[in-house]
Fold:
Amino acid sequence: MNVLLHTCCAPCTTHCAEVLRKLGHAPVLFFSNANIAPQEEYLKRLDEVIRLAKMIDIDLHVDATDHACWLDLVAKGFEKQPERGLRCQRCFEYSLKRTYDHMLKLGFDAFTTTLTVSPHKNSEQISKIGKGISAATWLDINFKKQDGFKHSLQLSKEYNLYRQSWCGCEFSQR
Structure:
């Protein structure tokens, strides 16, 4: 099955792409992260995803990004929400909807996200959002199971990847 994998960053992608391949899927990466600020951080994460894609021989599509639009559509009025709050849910929905739309454009069979590998993200919440967008094409995988996050840390060290210390938006940076 051709799967479009929403990719938040290179470290999280390592394990997720490997799992999808082991399950017999043909994943393609989709870097869609209008939430990431400042621009230097966005570019640093994108560069790492490009580098990883070359190392593991996987196709990569990069979404057009518009942080100002993301601020207006997702974060406005939710700036003071805590991590894992409503702002994050809105952000997940924004990115997953863009992934779904790109999946349709490419004619792929399914879409999923690397976000579920993080112990800092609520996989059940992300799954609910994905199913709400398209239950028929959402590939429901909790990548943190079976020590997925730990494995992503190991692979990140092997590939010498930059690991960020926050989700990406200016409201999550502590």
DSSP finds six helices and four strands in the chain.
